[in-house]
Automatic annotation (TrEMBL), chains A, B:
SMART domains: HTH_LACI. Keywords: DNA-binding, Transcription, Transcription regulation. The keyword Cell wall biogenesis/degradation does not apply. Gene3D superfamilies: 3.40.50.2300, lambda repressor-like DNA-binding domains (1.10.260.40). InterPro entries: HTH_LacI, LacI/GalR-like_sensor, Lambda_DNA-bd_dom_sf, Peripla_BP_I. It comes from the Bacteria. GO terms for molecular function: DNA-binding transcription factor activity; transcription cis-regulatory region binding. It holds the Pfam family Peripla_BP_3. This is LacI family transcriptional regulator.
DNA sequence: AGCGGTGTCTGAAGCGCTTCAGTTACCCTC
DNA sequence: GAGGGTAACTGAAGCGCTTCAGACACCGCT
């Protein structure tokens, strides 16, 4: 009989103790208007006495058919992801939006550079998935589709049937390119982010460019070229150095190479602020004045951008807005809404002290 | 009859289609050795055909009584948390450990500075909670205890019945203090982290110190004093400036104040690298040479510490180890292990270029 | 021939909760 | 005082899965 030993209390335990039905106890927690305040009071008190902390989340999820959490898949591991301040800011906005909708964030970090394992996604207790900047062929993406989970894509990649929020990468890059043209630059180099998820780096060949997977990189590159074209600069004259990761160190490495070419570029367009900060350092090490001898442009406008010396001219995207939109979209998908049009977050050029007129 | 319209397939659907029992289909996924390979093959194939992506995670959790995720509670929102590189590195190690144990990370960011809302914890689908540097009286903590969830505490606070991993804050600070003494410093100031979770800042009064909540801050302070005591410096001569948050800007602000006092300290012990980086900047702005006129010591040894000019002398803690330990502890708690002794992660002093002999 | 062992598969009892269609009891109204 | 409305509560049917104690057939052994 009494084998209900250290068993933790359930709805039933409480119901029995109070002498009401299970349904009533459930209502006490979920629909206070369905019972008299006194009874509710009594139920809650008894629950506390028995050490019952409220309906079990898992069981409740099963019954309601909603898990109450939003899964966030990202490309890399947490440490590289979180050193990406832009991602952090966005993620925070996402988390707040999602949390205020009474859901929590399930984090699915990537393994290597290819996103989370399919298995993690298969087993994830979630009812909507947000993917951030994943390679097109990420297994996690397929897994999510197999499970028919509503999908929200941020930036990358394009997946039919999913909601998406994206930054106007092309437009932002165009602004940056145009800015340099207006300053009279003629020899410009691009310091880019990864083209594909294999950690490769170095000067990007046309072949490499053709088989690229990351839309963000491609769009920004296209935008740069378009902006520069307004000054009569043609693509062939614009070297693209591919940084294997978004870190200062890679930025410095790439820039060191770019600035030791002949003829030396008078400006470097960097696809992130981190890269640009590394570029600044490289220029410094080479004894080149910024912006006197070389101009540097970033992308993202993270707080660090304004901290550097000189402060960084950069393309700002509204990261908070981006996260919020992604969250809203996710929440909306949960209500069964159709994906709808992609949401585009705007950009603007923040001109600061790292760019100036072309030398000579 | 046929109201099973757009209903998504379940174990049952597959079982019926194949003509076997539900148990067998379940085994096909969870215990391949329990059925013949051919049958398993057939089941998997049929499942795929029906668009069945495997056992529903929530239902499975209910049946197995384990949710498969580890909740991570932190004090602040994500954006401030993630600009804390030390946290990120640790979190990454934690995530990897946990993920390799086939579990995912449920993130419960804080609201304001007091940790997650109790409600978020109550509703979280998790079977173990890791708390990072929360105030002693965080509602989330109580909620976790109410649910009787196994608890792993990182750094802070001390909660009976929970596992914990902590850094030897005291020992690290002692090393830092002793280092300055050995360099001959006599007038030393401390730039500290928050004492309590209310965003207050400024010169810490004895009263403020007495009602402090954050162990980390207190331990480090005690360690500093102990180290300095070896040089005959007494506590009363060591001003403690409390930074309201762990940012460079606050570090700069505090240091500016400290370095404009008379007599001016010849060294500043900072409780984090971020603060120290701000301190560096403050010294620079005041036209004080580092380490010629003032020495700066950090804490944490984040990558940024070695990047700065001059590179930072700092106390290194093994963040990866810390995360890994926390993860291991969490996983172990799941198997019903008792908390056991606190795990302490070691520290060592990284002497770099920001400290030197006391001037004169 | 008889028997224990083994490899496969099944039935049914949960896991802890929500929810919906009732059922009472009570009050108001004409 | 019958009819209707409402507030308060209940019963039972799920939600989709796991698991454990069998059941059954077949094998090799003695």
């Amino acid at each position: 009989m009494s084998q209900d030993r250290a068993r933790r209390p359930t709805l039933d335990t409480v119901a029995r103790e109070v002498g009401v039905s299970r349904a009533t106890v459930s209502n006490a927690y979920n629909r206070p208007d369905q019972l008299s305040p006194q009874l509710r009071e009594r139920i809650i008190a008894t629950a506390r006495k028995l050490g019952y902390a409220g309906p079990d989340p898992v069981a409740r999820s099963l019954a309601t058919q909603r898990s109450g959490s939003v899964a966030f898949m990202l490309c890399e591991g947490l440490s590289s992801a979180f050193s990406d301040l832009a991602l952090c800011i966005m993620l925070d906005a996402l988390a707040s939006t999602v949390d205020s909708g009474d859901r929590s964030l399930l984090l699915l970090p990537g393994i290597g550079d290819g996103g989370p394992r399919a298995e993690s996604v298969i087993r994830a207790q979630t009812d909507v998935v947000v993917a951030y900047s994943l390679p097109d062929d990420a297994p996690a993406l397929r897994a999510a589709q197999e499970r028919k989970l509503p999908l929200v894509i941020v930036d990358q990649p394009v997946v039919p049937g999913s909601a998406r929020v994206q930054v106007d990468d092309y437009g932002g890059a165009l602004l940056a390119g145009r800015h340099l043209v207006e300053l009279g630059h003629q020899r410009v180099a691009v310091l880019g982010l990864s083209l594909s998820a294999n950690g490769q780096g170095g000067l990007a060949t046309p072949a490499r460019l053709r088989e690229a997977h990351f839309r963000v990189t491609l769009d920004r590159y296209a935008g740069y070229l378009e902006g520069l074209a307004e000054g009569g600069i043609v693509a062939e004259q614009v070297p693209l150095w591919e940084a294997p990761g978004n870190t200062r160190e890679f930025g410095r490495e790439g820039t060191t190479w770019l600035l030791t070419q002949h003829p030396r570029p008078t400006a470097v367009l960097c696809m992130s602020d981190e890269l640009a900060l590394g570029a600044l350092r490289a220029a410094d090490e080479l004894g080149l004045a910024v912006p006197g001898e070389v101009s540097i442009v970033g992308f993202d406008d993270t707080p660090a951008a304004s901290w550097g010396t000189p402060s960084l001219t950069t393309v700002r995207q509204d990261l908070v807005e981006k996260g919020r939109q992604a969250g809203t979209l996710a929440l909306r998908m949960l209500d069964g809404s159709r994906p709808g049009k992609p949401v585009t977050v705007g950009v603007e050029l923040q001109v600061r002290a790292s760019t100036g007129p072309a030398p000579r």
